[in-house]
Amino acid sequence: MYSFMGGGLFCAGVGNILLIVSTATDYWMQYRQSSNYMHQGLWRYCMPGKCFPHNDSIAHLDATRALMILSLLACFIGIIIGIMAFIHYSSFDRFDKTFAAGILFFISCFLVFLAMAVYTGVTISYYGKRYGNWRFSWSYIIGWVSVVLTFFSGVFFMCAYRMHECPRSANSH
Prior knowledge:
Elements: H1 2-24, E1 29-33, E2 36-40, E3 44-47, E4 50-53, H2 59-86, H3 97-130, E5 134-136, H4 138-172
Antiparallel strand pairs: 1-2, 1-5, 2-3, 3-4
């Protein structure tokens, strides 16, 4: 049980760090325009030597930002509850912290998956038609890696929950 929770906390910790890096950096997409490479993130776009904030309220960027921030919060709260479960913190006795942490990691995974799907769909349909020389960059890739890590942290915590619950179920009959 503790090895599952330890693996889940490790995956969640790395996933949360990657979510922060992915959300904060400006390399979600790179493109070439008039022989210069430019890149953009969720918060600003950069030309050689200068970066500018996104001044317009672009719906897909707003949605992606909001979903990424909510995912960060869910993952962070899941890590705190997972640590409390790992050290047997005794408040909220009727509240199964292992199960709650697993659910929060799945919620985080779902939210970051939605954020990545929104960004991917709009970017491909918009930039794919207008620019020929563009690509997703490393911040975007890190976002997809965090989807996988938060998913596996949820799986690990659900496995720990099942291992913890199986002896209880056998004793109650």
